[in-house]
Hints:
It is a single chain. This protein is of the alpha/beta class and 225 residues long. The chain has helices spanning 52-60, 91-96, 106-113, 124-132, 138-144, 160-164, 166-178, 203-219; strands at 5-8, 11-14, 26-29, 38-43, 64-69, 88-89, 116-122, 152-156, 181-182, 186-189, 195-199. The protein has two domains: 1-33, no CATH class; 38-219, Flavin prenyltransferase-like (Rossmann fold). It binds flavin mononucleotide (FMN). Flavin mononucleotide (FMN) binds at residues 44-48, 70, 72-73, 123-126, 157-158, 162.
Amino acid sequence: MNDHLHQSGGCIWAMPGSEPGSPEMEPIQANPAPRRPRILLAASGSVAAIKFGNLCHSFSEWAEVKAVATRASLHFIDRTSLPKDVILYTDEDEWSSWNKMGDSVLHIELRRWADILVIAPLSANTLGKIAGGLCDNLLTCVVRAWDYSKPFFVAPAMNTLMWKNPFTERHIMSIDELGVSLIPPVTKRLACGDYGNGAMAEPSLIYSTVRLFFESRVQQGGSVV
Length: 225
Ligand SMILES: Cc1cc2nc3c(=O)[nH]c(=O)nc-3n(C[C@H](O)[C@H](O)[C@H](O)COP(=O)(O)O)c2cc1C
């Protein structure tokens, strides 16, 4: 063992030119517990955003969660349904947190913080913006700055007429090329009363899909966090 290192109770104690027990001794973790994955959960303006609180609760059991909401999604999200420790960021936060040169920029901070990005629900509008590289709000700025070697999942939700529209297929193909993983919508009676494909996958399926992906990557020796 290195003269300057002393192992005790799971810690390695580094002694900057000192003897064990001296006041300068500093602990270094030998086997630090792996930290929890950091999930950035985002909602866009589909009526399925009423389930966003539920989704945040599921992910919070397993991961550190921060949330982003578009302006339209706020019509559907009940903020009181979110876990107490989950911060919900909006476009207002993006601008109120920046005053002068040198201040941090929220979308860049969130992009750096997150290991995984999940947009559920993904609206037709935000899908189109992502496919086209547009970035005019907090969420699309995070996406525009995203590192595509990190997992990025989307769960679209829209009326079946929007889902079947030819733009959808084009946009889904574009984001697939970027490496975005699709959690497809399901067929059922939609919130508007129509029956067809376009309903967001259940939050439990979104959660298990992301978690399974993460855990299998870790098992294969890949580093996600
Ligand atoms: C009551 C209501 C429900 C809506 N539901 C959906 C929906 O399920 N999916 C969707 O893509 N757009 C839906 N829209 C339209 C979007 O909210 C609209 O396109 C909005 O601009 C999306 O903004 P965002 O992508 O920035 O969140 C709905 C609009 C209203 C008024």
